[in-house]
Structures are given as C-alpha cells and as structure tokens.
Amino acid sequence: MAVYTEVGETELFEFMAGYDIGQVLSYKGIAEGVENSNFLLRTTGGTFILTLYEKRVNAGDLPYFLGLMQYLAGHGLSCPLPVTRRDGETLGELAGRPAAIFTFLEGMGARRPMPAHCRAVGEAMARLHAIGQGFPMHRANGLSMPTWRPLFQSCPDRVDTVEAGLSREILSELDHLEARWPTGLPAGVIHADLFTDNVFFLAGDLSGIIDFYFACNDLLAYDIAITLCAWCFEPDGSFNLTKGAALLSGYQSVRPLEEAEVAALPLLCRGAAMRFLLTRLYDWLTVPDGSFVTKKDPREYLRKLRFHRTVASAGEYGYTAIGETG
Ligand SMILES: Nc1ncnc2c1ncn2[C@@H]1O[C@H](COP(=O)(O)OP(=O)(O)OP(=O)(O)O)[C@@H](O)[C@H]1O
Ligand SMILES: N[C@@H](CCO)C(=O)O
Fold it and tell me: Is residue 324 part of a domain?
C-alpha cells in the first residue's frame, strides 16, 4: 500500500486553495506504487492524482520530472500533466512533503501483454525519445552502468543466500559490462522504467505512460533494452520472439535504429537486466519484511540476465532491418 503520508482534510483544503480546479469532493489513497504516496482526488472540476513525494525521490530532481511531463504532454505524448497552481508553479508542499496534482489518465496496465501491446509500447517509446530531443533540461542517470558496482558493494554480505554463487556471477558480469559498455550511441531523454504497470491501455489501445521518476538522459537503445526485458519474457522465463519483434518494429516505425545500436542491443540488455537485478537485490536484503515497499524477486532478473548472455545478435530478439521481413 503506497500511502506513506496521511493527509488531513484541513491541510488538503488549504493546499487546494492554491489551485483553480474546483472544490474537493473526495480523496482516497491508492494502493499501487512503491516510491510515493498517491491519492485519487475528485473535485467539482474533475478527477486528478495527488502525489506526495517521499524520501526515495530526490526533491532536486522534481523540476526535471514535472517539466518533462509538461513538455511531453505539450508535444502530444499522452502522460499525466502537472496542474499549474494559481501562482504559476506545479510543485507545492503538503503534510511536510513536496506535492503535485496531475491530470488523471484513463486505462490500466496490461496484465498479460500480447504482441499488439508490445508493438504499441515500442511505438510510444520511440515517440517519447523523438519528442524528448527538444526537452532542454538534463538529468544524469542515477542508476547508470558506473553506479552498479558500488550498488552491489553496498548490499549486505548475504548475497549468496539469494542463490549460491551469485556474488561471483555478478562480479564477473560487472567486469564484462564495464569493459564493453558502448559510448557514442544516440542519447537523449529515456523513461528508464517502462514496465507494464507504467503503460495504460484502454479498449486495447495505448492510452498513456505514467511514472517518470526514473527518467533521465542516457542511451536511447538502453531504454529499448529495459523495455524488452520488462515486456517480452513469459512467466516461465522464456523470451517471446514474436513480442520482441513487435516491440522493435513498433519502435522502428517511428525511429529506425542505427547499425551501432542494433549491434549493442545484446550487451545493453545484459546491462538492463543487471540494473534491475541489483536494485531488487538491494531491496530484498535491506528492506524489512512487512514494510510498505513491496520487494520484487531479484532472481527473475538473474534468469533474464542469463538468457541475454546467450544472445549473439539482435535478430534473437526479433530484430529485422526496415524493409526486410522477419
Ligand atoms: N495520472 C494518473 N492517472 C491515473 N492513475 C494514476 C496516475 N498516476 C498514478 N496513477 C495510479 O497510481 C499508481 C501509482 O503511481 P506510480 O506508479 O507513479 O507510483 P510510484 O509510487 O512512483 O510507484 P512505482 O515507481 O513503484 O511504480 C499507478 O499504478 C496508477 O494506478
Ligand atoms: N520497475 C522496477 C520497480 C520500480 O520502479 C522493478 O520491477 O524492479
């Protein structure tokens, strides 16, 4: 349940006086989500999402996240739009936390993604990348490749209790990634957490993208790698080539990949799997049981990493050059 901070009626009414979106009819905590406290807010002006930013989000990054959502929405990408207050700001303070209100997006995450969902998410990601080229702010990726070894080193000394030999496997993989991580590929704004719970569908069509709190500037193809990892594996751990092909062709219908990006894809997928393996591993070993933060199984990403290690070329993810048939 992601409501870490309770909000009293009086303080909410005071906060709402800064906005021009009508009288509060009701507000209710939202169970989903891990990082922040979210409330469904109904007013005489419509339905909104109220977000209170908790400790795991760096307040200094909020202008980038909110500015990005405003920019993307303003350029036709469907995502929550931060509502502007009477004083012209989008960020305020409520219950001692930075807080903002967003437009409500209809739809829900695809519980069992099909190839058509994968194609749609590929296309939407490419549009995000294309629009993001004009966004003037910059935020370094706080979970980029050089941060992975220190993150691993900060894990408690019990890594091998998750799986025998895991420390050794991670260290050898880090050596591999550090020696070969690509440079010079097209870069720009990436979502960096485009998992199935962050992409909404309505009546089969993609209705919007949420949760920009890992967005940053990094390699565009790294975002594709993250998304392939999140959308194209089956519950039994196998990679679904049809879904991979759909995601990549959806992406390429908007932005064709460069040869160097295609060549780097297997390595970027190993990196993406490592990033989520490590953050999940850290939480697994440090977050107390029964806390609000839902711990996700690091072994899911260990299995994905092992698969990517067997991949020799992007064709094994379903990639075909534009104009060729798969
Ligand atoms: N603009 C929106 N419109 C509709 N629903 C939303 C919107 N923003 C958030 N939600 C709802 O709130 C939930 C949590 O949002 P979000 O994923 O941004 O939270 P979070 O705490 O950053 O979580 P995490 O990073 O763990 O996914 C979503 O799953 C969705 O149900
Ligand atoms: N998407 C992340 C969690 C929060 O962003 C994961 O599945 O590990």
Answer: no
When pLDDT is cut at 50, 70 and 90, the band that residue 295 belongs to is confident
159 close to 192: Cβ distance less than 8 angstroms: no
Q: Measured from the CA of 109, which atom of ligand 1 is nearest?
A: 29
Residues of the domain holding 78: 9-104
| β-pairing verdict for 187-190 and 199-202 | unpaired
Return the CATH number at 79.
Answer: 3.30.200.20
Q: Tokens in use for 325?
A: 């048939």
Using CA atoms, how far residue 279 sits from 173, 286, 287, in Å, is 15, 11, 11
Mutational test site, ligand 1, from 210, 279, 291, max ligand atoms within 8 Å of CB: 210
Q: How far is the CA of 58 from the centre of ligand 1 (A)?
A: 17
Distance between CA atoms of 160 and 109, rounded to whole angstroms? 34
Same domain for 83 and 138, yes or no, is: no
pLDDT in tens, 46-78: 999 999 998 888 999 999 999 999 999 999 999
Nearest by Cα to 161 from 285, 279, 282, 283: 285
Q: How high is the mean pLDDT of the chain?
A: 95
Pocket flag, ligand 2, residue 34 (CB < 6 Å)? yes
Say yes or no: 190 and 254 in one domain.
yes
Same domain, 38 and 64: yes
Domain presence at residue 173: yes
pLDDT score for 1: 43
Q: By percentage, how much of the chain surpasses pLDDT 90?
A: 90
Helix (H, G, I), strand (E, B) or coil at 99: strand
ipTM rounded to 2 decimals: 0.94
Whether this prediction's pTM lies above 0.90 is answered by yes
List, in sequence order, every residue forming a beta bridge with 246; answer none if it has no partner: none
Which ligand places an atom closest to the C-alpha of 192?
2
* CB 197 less than 6 A from any atom of ligand 1: yes
